[in-house]
Amino acid sequence: MNNFYDWKPEHVNAFVIIISVSIGFATYWFLALNGKIKSQFFKRYQDENGWVTYVCFQKVMGTLFMGVIPGTILISISDYTLADLGLRMGNYNESLIYIAVIGSLIFILNYFVSRNPFNLGMYPQMRIKVWNKDRILINSIAWVAYMFGYEFMYRGLLLVVCYDSFGFWPAVAINLSFYLATHIAKGLIETIGTIPYGLLLCFVTISTGSIAVAFVTHLILALSNDYFAVHHNPEMKFT
């Protein structure tokens, strides 16, 4: 007779990745929002440079603990390759169509949403008044790195492994649960928005066999939100 707690070997990969991304996200969250760590950046650098270095630190921690470390753990204990986990172009034509359509809609919508006072209070995360070319480049590169780790975690590791273990809809339920819960701190609008957007990205990722659409469209969302917020904020400007 089997006990309810008996180990099922076919679930080992899903077990490992759910635990590792949970610990990874929690580690990133408490490091990124640690008040003592934040204060060290502003003690060492001037106010605006403090924001630049501190936000870059946050993005690097996110890349490592959400994407790189859980991915390394999974690959070391399983037969998964990076290509299996979505790090490939997949269906090239299908991906480009999704990127063009979803990216355009996000860009247009963000122009209007980004002027919301709540949004202006949160973005851009680098609370600097003068945005020159160097700062725009640094901010953009930091977002590229972060979004790689972020989408590799959600739509690569978590979605693909759970899909292989449990099937599409259970994998989507797990993915959306994580995705929604981690956006609660960003307010009601972003939390609600995770449901249709997250569902769409789950479908597109499995359909194309790649995280390319999720990565590029989410990057468009992050960068357009940041720079439209600078544009709409009377205390900030581009030079």
How does this structure look, described?
- By secondary structure, this protein is mainly α.
- The protein has one domain (9-238).
- 75% of the residues lie in helices and 2% in strands.
- It has helices at residues 12-32, 35-44, 47-77, 92-113, 117-122, 133-166, 168-181, 188-208, 212-232, and strands spanning 130-131, 237-238.
- Strands 1-2 form a two-stranded parallel ribbon.
- Helix 4 packs parallel to helix 9, helix 6 packs across helix 8 and helix 6 packs antiparallel against helix 9 (212-232).
- It is globular and about 65 Å long.
- The mean pLDDT is 94.
Please summarize what this structure is.
By secondary structure, the protein is an all-alpha fold. It is 75% helix and 2% strand. The radius of gyration is 19 Å and the shape is globular.
List keywords for this structure.
9 helices, mainly alpha, globular, 239 residues
Radius of gyration: 19 Å
Poorly predicted runs: none
E-strand count: 2
Give the biggest sheet.
2 strands, parallel
Share of residues in helices: over 70%
- What is the overall number of helices? 9
Class based on secondary structure composition and strand pairing: mainly alpha
Mean pLDDT: 94
Strand % is under 5%
Shape: globular
| Cα end-to-end separation | 72 Å
- Output the helix-strand order: HHHHHEHHHHE
Number of individual domains: 1
Strands of the widest sheet, in order across it, are 1-2
SSE blueprint and pairings:
Elements: H1 12-32, H2 35-44, H3 47-77, H4 92-113, H5 117-122, E1 130-131, H6 133-166, H7 168-181, H8 188-208, H9 212-232, E2 237-238
Parallel strand pairs: 1-2
Helix pairs in contact: 1-3, 1-6, 2-3, 3-6, 4-9, 6-7, 6-8, 6-9, 7-8
